[in-house]
């Protein structure tokens, strides 16, 4: 069955790969983004080239009005949503907790936790039986990211807990809720944290001996969105090379 999927943070990285793979299934994709309009339009073109309908929608997931407009805009352009990928997220430069200021902590939890909750709430209000929500968490939720990102790790712990709770809440309505927990994946998020080579450098230390690709994470996300995962809910799937 054809699907209509909203991907937050769909302009780049894991979100972009998910949008393109979804389009290869013939699904329509709303591409959410924060400010990089050129990247969002490029992703829309890639989705269309892959066979799907697409629209780019700008907004900050930490702002309630933006989230409402994002969901309204997606449904106005593409029809009722059948899937939502809660993917938009940020890191900040590596630091010990003792050195993190309030502005950094507030922004981390605003985007990664409040943003995830606001998007999940809209998804819960709109999805009907057969719908699927996929969160993009991180193995950092389990490992803690000491000396680098304990703020980020805690924000993803909240996403894991939301996944478990919302899966139980929405299961009776026939809406599935799952998360993927990527490890070191080659995207631009590492440059935004001041370490462009981080995934390659640390990926080499994992059991599989390399970083993962955005496409390898997208494969799992698209499976969870699809009808092949019809009996999977409340699952947290590590995609981290055995880390
Ligand atoms: P990325 O390449 O940096 O892309 C981030 C995406 O999120 C972009 O589309 C960006 O939009 C959007 N975004 C950022 N802040 C936003 C906001 N406040 N409101 C709306 N959109 C926002 O990141 P990525 O590596 O693909 O990461 C995607 C998700 O995977 C994140 O939740 C991240 O925590 C998680 N993850 C990544 C890794 C990894 O190694 N890469 C590992 C574990 C988990 P613009 O293009 O407009 O800036």
Automatic annotation (TrEMBL):
Molecular-function GO terms, alphabetical: oxidoreductase activity, acting on CH-OH group of donors
Gene3D superfamilies: NAD(P)-binding Rossmann-like Domain
Superkingdom assignment: Bacteria
A Pfam family assignment: adh_short_C2
tRNA-binding among keywords: no
UniProt KW Mitochondrion keyword: no
Keywords: Oxidoreductase
Recorded family membership: Belongs to the short-chain dehydrogenases/reductases (SDR) family.
Protein name, UniProt field: NAD(P)-dependent dehydrogenase, short-chain alcohol dehydrogenase family
The species this protein was found in: Caenispirillum bisanense
Upper taxonomic lineage: Bacteria, Pseudomonadati, Pseudomonadota, Alphaproteobacteria, Rhodospirillales
């Amino acid at each position: 069955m054809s699907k209509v999927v909203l991907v937050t943070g769909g302009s780049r990285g894991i979100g972009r790969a998910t949008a393109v793979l979804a389009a290869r299934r013939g699904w329509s994709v709303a591409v959410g983004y924060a400010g990089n309009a050129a990247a969002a339009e490029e992703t829309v073109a890639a989705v269309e080239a892959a066979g799907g309908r697409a629209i780019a929608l700008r907004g900050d997931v930490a702002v309630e009005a933006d989230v409402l407009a994002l969901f309204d805009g997606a449904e106005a352009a593409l029809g009722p949503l059948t899937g939502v990928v809660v993917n938009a997220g940020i890191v900040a430069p590596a630091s010990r907790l003792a050195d993190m200021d309030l502005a950094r902590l507030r922004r981390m939890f605003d985007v990664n936790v409040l943003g995830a909750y606001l998007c999940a709430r809209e998804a819960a209000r709109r999805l009907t039986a057969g719908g699927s929500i996929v969160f993009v968490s991180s193995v950092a939720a389990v490992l803690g990211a000491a000396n680098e990102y304990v703020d980020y790790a805690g924000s993803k712990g909240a996403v894991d807990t939301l996944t478990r709770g919302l899966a139980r809440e929405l299961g009776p309505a026939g809406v599935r809720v799952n998360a993927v927990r990527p490890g070191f994946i080659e995207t631009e998020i590492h440059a935004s944290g001041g370490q462009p080579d981080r995934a390659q450098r640390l990926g080499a230390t994992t059991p599989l001996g390399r970083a993962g690709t955005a496409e390898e994470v997208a494969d799992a996300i698209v499976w969870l969105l699809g009808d092949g995962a019809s009996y999977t809910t409340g699952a947290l799937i590590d995609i981290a090379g055995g880390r």
